[in-house]
C-alpha cells in the first residue's frame, strides 16, 4: 500500500488541506470521543456475540479502544488533519494493531449510523444535565416565591403599571413556566433515547448484526427501526434546540425585568456585585453584564435553531455533510443554556429587594385603579364598563391635579359620574381608601392571584410536581446506570 | 358622554387613524370571532352562576352574543377601524343593548386573558386538524410502503448512489418520522388545552369568578394557574410552531427527492399532471410547482417560528402588544402546513413509478459495491477494512474500463488484491454476480432494512401505532364534544 | 380546442384546485398589475419597433391593455383561480381579442423575466417612497435636535446611568444613523434599477428583440446582461430587505427607549394620547401600543429577510417556484417599514418632555462621576486609572451614606485617596461642585459631544447632507418621469 | 490597595468565576489583540500631541505596548480569567510599568469606543481580504467562461430542462452576480472605515482629545461624529454580514448545481478527487463533502446574521453587553466565507466536463422546443401563443411515441395543428431539424444570450469592470499603507 490514507483508495488524490480543515469536525468531536469509544466497544461485543468476529479479535479491539480512551484522557491521542472526524481517528487508532484485526471494527457499521448514535447519547446526557439544573432552579424559585409571598410589587403590562402583584407570585409564574420546559425535555427524551446503530450507511447491512443488543448495551430504550430514517433525521436535535430556546427566551424576559428593576429609576432590587461588571471609564457604574449576556444569548440559541433548520431545508434524503453543523450547533446551545440557568439562579438568590421603594411606587401611581373599578361594580350597581369609564375619568382628573385617587373628594366623584354617565354615585372616603389599598388589593385576590394564601395553595401542588419530575430523572439515570453495569460486565467477561 | 369611543375615556385624543391600522389585528381576528363569542358566553354563564350578574342580564347578554354570531355568519357584523380587535368589537356589539347591561360582559375579564384563551382554543382546533391530516397521510404512506415493498430503487447518501433500497422502505421511513411529529403534537396538546380565562389583565380579579367552571364549559382540561404566566406566555404557540416546522422540513426533503426523481436525468417517477404547471414560453415544460412550493414553504414556517421568538426576546414580563404578531404567525403557519400535507399525499398517491429505469441505474453504477465488500468479509477471511480497500480499487479499475463490477475477471481481482493488500483472493464469476445483484442485495437484509419481509414486520407494529393515535384523537374530540354539549345545555337552561 | 385552459396543452389534466390556491400569487400580485400592464405595453412597442409584429397588432394589443387597466381600476378585472398569477391573467385578458393577435403579446417574453422586471419596478418605487419618508423623518430629527440642544438628559449604557447627554444629541445620533440607511438604499437603487426584460425564460430568445429599448421605456438605467442571472437572482430584494431591517432595528431601539422614558419610573416624556391605547380593564392605563408594535415589527422584517434567504438556499440555478414567496415577503416588509417611519416621526413630534425630572435624576444619582475623574486627571496629577479608582471609592462611600458626590467633604476624600492609593489629594468644595455639575458637564464637551455648540456644528454639515440626498432622489424621480413621458409619447404615436 | 482587581474598586465582590467565563470574549479577542495595541498606540501619540501626557509618559507607554505585542507574538502574553476582554488585558500589561504612568493609557478613552474601533479596523481588513478573494474568483469565472463559451449544456428552470445554454454562459452569470457583491462590499467599506475612537463611553470626554488625528493615524477616512451613535451602532457589521450571506447564498446555489451535475444521473462533470471524501463503508462512493459544506454554510452565515439582528432588537440605546456576540458572529462569518470562495474556485478550476453527455441529454429530451415555437412564429404566421399550443401538443405526441421532435412527420404536425388550432402548417423535415438543433439554437441567440459572440461581447465590458475594482482595492490598500507609514514615523519620532 503506497497510499498514506488507506481510506481513500478509491480516489486518486489526497484530500486538499484547506478542504480538510473546512469539512472536519474535530473541534466539536472532542467532546464525543469518549462516547464514540463506548459505541465502538458495544459494537465489538455484539460482533463477537453474533459470531461475526472471533473472541481473540474482539479482545484485541477492546484492548485498543481502552488504550485509546486512556491516551485521550492523558492528552496523548493525536490525530491528523486528514482524519476529519472522531470516527476515522478512532478506527485508525485501533488499526495500529493491524489491518487484519483492527480492520474488523467497522464491520456492519458506518460513520452515518455512528455519528447519529453518538449524538443521541450526547443529547440524552445533556437533557439529563439541563433537567437537573432546571429543577434546581425551579426549586429555588419555589422557595423564594414562598419567602416573598406577602411582598407587594407593581405588576406591569405594556411596561406600565398595571395592578398590584407580589414578588412571590412573580417568581412563581416563572417556576410554573419552566416546569413546562421540564416536561418538554422529558417528552423529547423518549424520542432521543433510541439507537441508530446498525442502520449502517443507509440500508443496514448483510452482516448478521443485532441492533437490539447494542441498543441495550448503550442504555437506549429502543431502536430507530427504519435505517434511512435513522441516518437522515435530525428532528431529535431540533426538538431539543426548540426547548432550549424556550428556556432561554424565558430567561431573557426575566433578565430584562431584573435589569429594569435594578436601575436607578426603578430601584426595586440590588444585584449581587459578583454578577456585575464595572466600567473602565465611569467610576460609578455597576453594569449588569451577566444579565445582559443571558438576555442576548436567547438570540444566539434562536439563531442556532434556525441554522439547524437551514441545515436540512431542501436537502435530499440520506446522510449529507450538510447535517454536520447541526452537531456543532447543539454543542453551542448546550454551552449557553447550562451556565445561563445556573447564573440566573445565583443572581436571584443574591438579590436584595427594596420593598419600601415598591410600596412607594404603588401608592404614588394609580396601580389600584382596577380595584376601585371592581369595588364600584360590587357595591354600587354600576356595570363594569360604566365603572371603567368613571374611574378612567377619575384618574384623568387626579393626574391633572397631581393627586392620588383616594384624595379625590366624594363630591367630586359624584359630580364626575353624573357628568360622564348621567348616574349618581355615593362613595365614602373610607371606601375609597380601602378600595385602593395595596395590601387589601392582594388580600382580595383570595385563593387565586398574587395573595399569600393563593401562593401557598399553588406551592402545595407545585412542590410534589417538582418531586415527581425529580423521580422521573432519577429513574432515567438508574436505567442508564444499570445498562452501563451490564455493559461493563459483558466487556469484562469477554476480556476474561 | 361626548366621546365616540367610550373605551378611551382616560385619554384626551382619539387614536390616530394610521396607528389604528398599524396596531389592529382584524385581519387575523376574523378567524377568532366565533371562538371569541363562545368564550364570552362561557364567561357570562359563569358570572350568573356565581351570582355576579342577574339572570335577566345574563339572558340579555347571551341573546346579543347569539345575534352577533348570526350577523357574523351573514356577513353583517360590521366593525370600525378604532375597534382594533375582535374583543372590543364583540363587546361593543353587546353594549348596543345598553351600557348598564351589556357593560357587564367585561366584569372580571380582560382582553389579555381572553386573547390567550381564544388562541388556545384556536390552537387546539388546529392541532386536531393537523393530527388528522397527518395520520391520513401516514396511513397512505404505510399503504404505499406495502405496495412497493419489493421494488428496488437506488438509495442515496451525499446525493450519490449509496446502496440498494426499495420504494416501500423509503416511504416507510417518512411514515415513521411523521409519526414522531404526531406524538409531539399530542404532547403539545396537553400544554395547550389549559384555560387562561380568569387571569384577567395580569393578577386575576377581586370579582368572585370561577376559573374551573369556564375552563370546563370551554372544553379545557385544566387552567394555567398563575395569572401572570397565563397572560405573558406564548410558549404553547412556539411549541406548536416548532413541530409545524419539523413537519414542513420533512416535507421539504421529500419534495426535493421527488423533484429530482422526476427530472429527465433520473426519470424514476412521473408526477401527476394536476399537480404540475406549464411554462408560458417553453412548450415542453412540465414544472413541479406544487412540490417546489412545499419545499420553499418550510422556509416560511421556519421564518414564522423565528419571528415569534423575536416577539418575546428581551421583552419584559406581562402582556405587551409585541405578542400580537405571534397570533398572526400561527395563523399563517397553519395555512401552510395543512394544504402542504394534503397536497403531498395527493402527489404520492398519483405518482407513476418507472421501476425499469431504477433497475437500470442500479445495475449500471456500482450501487452494490458494499454488498461485495460484505460478501468478501463473510466468505474470504478479509477484515472489513481490507475488503473495503480491495473493493475500492476494483471500482476504480472497473470505472476506468467502463465495466460493471461483475465483469471484472477473477484473475484481475486476485492480482489487484495481491498488489494492494499483499493478500490472495479467489472469487468466482458466480460469487461476483450474486454478491452484486440488486434483488439479492435486498433479500440479504432479512428482517431488517429494505427487504419485503422487514417492511411487513415493521408495518405489523406501525399500523397498530397509527390506530392507537387515531383513538387518542377520537378521545380528544369526544371530550371536546361532550364539553360542548354541557355548555349548550347550560346556555339553554339559562335562556329558559 | 377542447381545453378550457389553453396554456396547459402539454398536460392531460387541469390544475388541482387546492394546488391552484397553494401556488397562486394573486394576493400579492394585485399590487403589481398596473406595473405588469406597463411592462407589457413596453414589450409590445418594442416588438413593433423591431418589426416582429405589425402596427395593427400592436395597436390592438395596446388597446386591450388599456382596457385591462381601466377595468382593474374599476374593480372589474376578474380572474380565475387557474390564472395563478398576474401575467397569465393579463395575457388572457388581451387574448379576448383573439388568439391570433392577442397571442402575440408573449412573443420573446416569459413570466420569468417579467416577474423579475415587475419586482424591480415595484422595488424601485418602494425605495423612492421609503427614501422620502426617511428623509422627512431625518429632517424632523435634525430640527428637534436643534430645539433640544441644551436640555440635559441622563445618557445610558448597560441600561444604567452613564454620563450626561442632551435630548438634542440623543436625537441627532439617530438622524446620523438613519442617514447611513438612506445611503444604503441609494446604493441599492443602482443595483435594482436594471431591466431583466428580454432574458425570457432563461437564455433569451431567437426573436429579434431590443432589450435596451424596453429598459429605456420603463425607466431602467440599464439591463442585467446575463439572462440566467436575470431570472435566477433575487439578491436585489435581499439587499433592500437587509436595509429595511436595519431601519426597523434602529426604530425598535428608539421605541424601547421611549417606552422606558414614558414609564412612571422614568417620567422623562409624555407620549401623545393619539398614539396610545387604553386597557379594557385597568382604567388608569395608557399603553404605548404603537411603539410596542414598532419594536416588535423589527422582528417581523428580520423574519422576512431570513425567510427570503431560505427561499434560495440550496436552490439550483434558474427560476423555480421557490422564489415566489420572496415577492410576498418584500410586499410585507414594505407595508411595515413605511408606516413605522411615519408613526415614529409623529410620536417624536408630539412628545412632551419633562426636563425637570431629567435634571432631578442626574443630580440625585452619580451621573457626573466621570467628570470628576477627568477633573482630577486634568488638575491633580493623577493618572486616569488612579483617578478612576479614587472616584470609584468615593461613589461607594457616598452611596453608603446616601449622599451626593459633591456632599463628600474634602477631608474625607483626602483620607480615602491616601488609604486606597497612598496618594494625597486636595480638592475644594467648589471644585467638587463644578466638576459634578450637569450643565457644566455638557459645556465642557466643547465642539464635540452633546453640547449645544457641538450640535450646531454637526447640523451645519448634516443639513446640507440631507439636502444633497433629497436632490439625488429628485434626480431619480426626474429620470423616471422623463422616461415615462417618452413612453407615453411612443404609445400615442403608435396608437395614432 | 488590597483589591487584586483594581478595576473593580466600586464593587464589594470579585466577579463570579462562572460569570467571568460567560461574559468574557477572549476567544474572539485573540484576533483583535494586534489591532487593539495599534489603537492604544495611536491614542497615546494623540494624548502626547495634545499635551495631555508628557513625552516620557508617552514613551514608556509605547514601550510597554511594543513589549505586549512582542510577548503576544511569542505566545507569552498571559491573561487572567477576570480580564474579560483584550482591552483590560492590554491596559493591565501596560500598567505593569506603574499605575502612575501606565494608568494614563485610558485617559479619554473607553472600552466602548475602543471595541467599536477595533471591530471597524478588523472589519475593513476582512472586507479587503474578501474583496481580493472574490475578484480572483470572478477572474477565474471569466476565464473559464471564455474557455467554455461554445460548449452547449442544458439550461434548467424548475429543475427541469428549459433551453440550451453554454457552460461559459452559466459561469458568466455567476461572475456578474458576484461582481455586484464586490460593489456592495465597496459601498459598505465607506461606512465601515470611520473612526469611533474618542466617543469614549457614550458622550465623548472633557479631556482635550483630537479625534481626527487618531482617525488619520489609524487609516480611517473620517469619524463617526455622534459619540452615542458611535458606541451604540453595529449596523456596519450587519451590512457586511448581509453581503457575506449574499455571497454564501450564491455559492450555495452553485454548489447545489455542481452536486447535481456530478451525480451518475447527470454525469455532466467529474469533481476533482482532492475536494471529495470517501465513505468508510461503501467502497464505490466519492462524496462531494466540500460542496455540501459550502451549501450548508450559507445556512450558518444566515443564522449569524439573524443572531446579530437579535442582538440589537428591542435594545435600549447605548453600549450593552448584548452587543458583544455580534463581534463573535462577524469572526465566524469571515471564517466561513473566505475558504468557501477559495475552495469553490479550486473546484471549478479542477472540474472535468463531459460535453458528450450534455449533448446527449439535449438531443434526447425536448430542450429545443422553444426554438421550434419561435421558428414557427418567425416563419409561419402563427402568433406565439398559437405556436406554443401547437408545439405543446407536438411534445405530448412525441413523448407518447418516444420520439424526438425532429422525428415527427410534417404530415402529422399538420394534422395536429388543424386539429388543435384549426390552422394549417407546412413545415419541412429540414426546417424541423434546424429549428431543434442545439448548436444552431445557441447561434441564433446572436449578440445576447449564451452564444460565443455574446459571451465575448460581455467579457469585453466585464474584464475592465474587474480591473476597475482591483484598482479601487489597490487604492484602499495604498491609503492604508501610507497611513501606516505616517503612523510608524510618528511613533519613531516620539520614541526618539
Average pLDDT rating of chain A? 95
Number of helices of chain A: 19
Strand order of the largest sheet of chain A: 1-2
What is the CATH architecture term of the largest domain in chain A?
Up-down Bundle
Q: What is the class of the largest domain in chain A in the CATH system?
A: Mainly Alpha
Largest interface: C-D, 118 and 119 residues
What is the chain-wise order of helices and strands of chain A?
A: HHHHHHEEHHHHEHHEHHHHHHH
- Cα distance spanning the termini of chain A: 35 Å
Amount of beta strand of chain A? under 5%
* Oligomeric state of the chains present here: homotetramer
Task: Report on this structure.
4 copies of one chain form a homotetramer. With 496 residues, chain A is mainly alpha-helical. Chain A folds into 3 domains: 17-30 and 53-106, no CATH class; 112-360 and 457-485, Fumarase/aspartase (Central domain) (Fumarase C, Chain A, domain 2, Up-down Bundle); 369-436, Fumarase/aspartase (C-terminal domain) (Ribonucleotide Reductase Protein R1, domain 1, Orthogonal Bundle). Helix content of chain A is 64%, strand content 3%. The first copy, chain A, is built from 19 helices and 4 strands. Chain A has helices spanning 17-23, 26-29, 33-49, 55-73, 86-95, 111-147, 167-192, 211-217, 227-232, 235-261, 289-312, 324-350, 355-364, 369-379, 384-400, 410-421, 429-435, 438-444, 452-495; strands at 152-157, 160-166, 269-270, 352-353. In chain A, the strands form 2 sheets. In chain A, strands 1-2 form a two-stranded antiparallel ribbon. A two-stranded antiparallel sheet of chain A has the order 3-4. The longest helix of chain A has 44 residues, at 452-495. Chain A is elongated. The two termini of chain A are 35 Å apart. The model of chain A has no long low-confidence stretch (mean pLDDT 95).
Amino acid at each position: 500500500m503506497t497510499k498514506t490514507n488507506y481510506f481513500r483508495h478509491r480516489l486518486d488524490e489526497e484530500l486538499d488541506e484547506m478542504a480538510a480543515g473546512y469539512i472536519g469536525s474535530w473541534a466539536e468531536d472532542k467532546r464525543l470521543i469518549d462516547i464514540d469509544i463506548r459505541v465502538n466497544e458495544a459494537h465489538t461485543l455484539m460482533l463477537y456475540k453474533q459470531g461475526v468476529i472471533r473472541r481473540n479479535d474482539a479482545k484485541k479491539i477492546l484492548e485498543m479502544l481502552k488504550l485509546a480512551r486512556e491516551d485521550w484522557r492523558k492528552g496523548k491521542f493525536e490525530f491528523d488533519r486528514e482524519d476529519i472526524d472522531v470516527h476515522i481517528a478512532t478506527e485508525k487508532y485501533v488499526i495500529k494493531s493491524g489491518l487484519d484485526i483492527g480492520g474488523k471494527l467497522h464491520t456492519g457499521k458506518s460513520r452515518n449510523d455512528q455519528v447519529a448514535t453518538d449524538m443521541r447519547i450526547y443529547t440524552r446526557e445533556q437533557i439529563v444535565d439541563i433537567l437537573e439544573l432546571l429543577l434546581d432552579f425551579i426549586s429555588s424559585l419555589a422557595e423564594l416565591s414562598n419567602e416573598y409571598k406577602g411582598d407587594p410589587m407593581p405588576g406591569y403590562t405594556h411596561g406600565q403599571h398595571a395592578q398590584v402583584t407580589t414578588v412571590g407570585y412573580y417568581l412563581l409564574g416563572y417556576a410554573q413556566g419552566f416546569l413546562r420546559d421540564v416536561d418538554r425535555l422529558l417528552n423529547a427524551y423518549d424520542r432521543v433515547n433510541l439507537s441508530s446503530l446498525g442502520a449502517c450507511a443507509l440500508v443496514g447491512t448483510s452482516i448478521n448484526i443485532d441492533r437490539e443488543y447494542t441498543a441495550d448495551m448503550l442504555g437506549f430504550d429502543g431502536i430507530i427501526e427504519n435505517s434511512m430514517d435513522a441516518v437522515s433525521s435530525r428532528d431529535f436535535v431540533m426538538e431539543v434546540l426548540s426547548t432550549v430556546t424556550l428556556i432561554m427566551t424565558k430567561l431573557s424576559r426575566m433578565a430584562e425585568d431584573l435589569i429594569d428593576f435594578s436601575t436607578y429609576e426603578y430601584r426595586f432590587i440590588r444585584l449581587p456585585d459578583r454578577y456585575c461588571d464595572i466600567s473602565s471609564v465611569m467610576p460609578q457604574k455597576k453594569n449588569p453584564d451577566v444579565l445582559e449576556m443571558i438576555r442576548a444569548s436567547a438570540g444566539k440559541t434562536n439563531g442556532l435553531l434556525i441554522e439547524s433548520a437551514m441545515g436540512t431545508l431542501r436537502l435530499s434524503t440520506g446522510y449529507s455533510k450538510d447535517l454536520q453543523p447541526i452537531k456543532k450547533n447543539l454543542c453551542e446551545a448546550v454551552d449557553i443554556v447550562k451556565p445561563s440557568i445556573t447564573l440566573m439562579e445565583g443572581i436571584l438568590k443574591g438579590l436584595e429587594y427594596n420593598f419600601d421603594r415598591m410600596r412607594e411606587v404603588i401608592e404614588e401611581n394609580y396601580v389600584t385603579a382596577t380595584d376601585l373599578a371592581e369595588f364600584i361594580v360590587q357595591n354600587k350597581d354600576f356595570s363594569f364598563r360604566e365603572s371603567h369609564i368613571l374611574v378612567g375619568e377619575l384618574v384623568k382628573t387626579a393626574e391633572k391635579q397631581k393627586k392620588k385617587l383616594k384624595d379625590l373628594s366624594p363630591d367630586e366623584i359624584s359630580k364626575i359620574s353624573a357628568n360622564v354617565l348621567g348616574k349618581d354615585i355615593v362613595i365614602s372616603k373610607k371606601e375609597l381608601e380601602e378600595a385602593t389599598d395595596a395590601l387589601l388589593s392582594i388580600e382580595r385576590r383570595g385563593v387565586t392571584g398574587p395573595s399569600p394564601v393563593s401562593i401557598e395553595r399553588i406551592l402545595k401542588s407545585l412542590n410534589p410536581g417538582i418531586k415527581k419530575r425529580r423521580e422521573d430523572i432519577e429513574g432515567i439515570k438508574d436505567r442508564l446506570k444499570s445498562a452501563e453495569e451490564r455493559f461493563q460486565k459483558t466487556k469484562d467477561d469477554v476480556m476474561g
